[in-house]
Amino acid sequence: MNGKDLEKELLWETPHIAKAAPAQREEAQSFCEGYKKFLNEGKTERECVKTAAAMLKAAGYQEFDRNRTYQAGDKIYWNNRGKALAAATIGSLSLEEGFRLNAAHIDSPRLDLKPNPLFEKNEIAYLKPHYYGGIRKYQWSTVPLAMHGVVVRQDGEVIEVSIGEKEGEPQFCITDLLPHLAAEHNGRKLGDGIKGEELNIIIGSIPFVGEDDETLKTPVKLMAMKLLNEKYGMTEKDFTRAELEMVPAYKAVDIGLDRSLVGAYGQDDRVCAYTALRAEIEAKSPAHTTLTVLADKEEVGSSGNTGLNSDFLLHIMADLAENMGAHFHTVLRHSICLSSDVNAAYDPTFASVYEERNACYINRGCVLTKYTGARGKSGTNDASAETMAQVIRIMDENGVYWQTGELGAVDVGGGGTIAQFVASMDVDVVDLGVPILSMHAPFELASKLDVYNTYRAFCAFYR
Ligand code: MN
Ligand code: MN
């Protein structure tokens, strides 16, 4: 017997998609134009919900109404406090056959403003943030920042804030030390390069000059507050009634001469949110009822009532089950969920933290992650062989390029996703998503071919 043939028959390797399916290069390029637009429109969970809701409404989705009776093909959605969202297409099978559930998250690591953030030091006005999610703090200095969020004013009006995104708008920045004076600073450990309380964001340096300027203690702070007041009608006290998020101000771009990668802030996990949303909208007459969830708070452990460690998703499923006369526990037991989230792509520059055989690679397709967690699989949903088999069968039958991947080598670190919270609802679940380079950095990279195949996997899952 020929060894090459035997190798083909018995061994398994994942190809570079551009070699195996050259036609997909063009398809992936064009798919990612919409993806980049989505990234630019949604830099916070609230903005993603707004963009997604507009896409759903344009596609004929209506807000869930428990007094209506739903039929196969109907498209509905739920908006959870403007910060999380779910959308469904009713299937032709009974709901007791289970949901096809796909859950991604739309919150990303960032710098949230503290409740009392504004101060002046040596005639510079600053904002104090408290970082949100896992960041390497030193990466966030000398990056142009934009301010996004909402302020609820004394009069009860909710004001949407966005400064630094439109052409010509001012932006904000955290300083770093010049190399000439960094001899001692260079001795710091990288993790302490910029410490939490050194993340001071410059927002102004011109003092308010009034007729009584001699008596003012913080005229630069006052000037900054005056400018915010002119724009949004807010006062300093209103910061306590606000959710203001500082995020990188730059737009999504193509990276590489071949334009093979997307470079942008917040691809974890808006890449899965966008691909899932597109697949949901395109599901016309699915057999199983689809349910696409865009969740908040994943980066801080899914806690809070817009995160998946709350009952909001359970209540959505229960409401629909009741509406359709289905036995809820049966619905849950028969459901299968993709916890759609990114994984760490193998980075040759930092090879030692990966285990080559079980890392995921850019341009080899979406990554099926059986388990996450840390140490001895602590804190993970370890998907069953049967669940893996079901998802692999769907992808293989539809010619989706996929690979398997672990989050780093054993004992190097770890992490978690929303999979464990879905599993605790008595639903089968496995992680699937896009390999990312520089994950959680202010600027992350993803392969367009991988983004496209993740979308293809989600379409196949809903078919
Ligand atoms: Mn994620
Ligand atoms: Mn993350």
Automatic annotation (TrEMBL):
Listed cofactors? Zn(2+)
Q: What is its EC number?
A: 3.4.11.-
* Keyword Protease set for record: yes
Q: Which UniProt keywords apply?
A: Aminopeptidase, Hydrolase, Metal-binding, Metalloprotease, Protease, Zinc
Judging by the UniProt lineage, the source's domain of life is Bacteria
Establish whether keyword Hydrolase is in the entry: yes
Stored Pfam families = Peptidase_M18
What NCBIfam families has UniProt attached to this entry? PRK02256.1 (NF002600)
Similarity annotation:
Belongs to the peptidase M18 family.
Protein name, as recorded: M18 family aminopeptidase
What organism is recorded for this protein?
Answer: Candidatus Copromonas faecavium
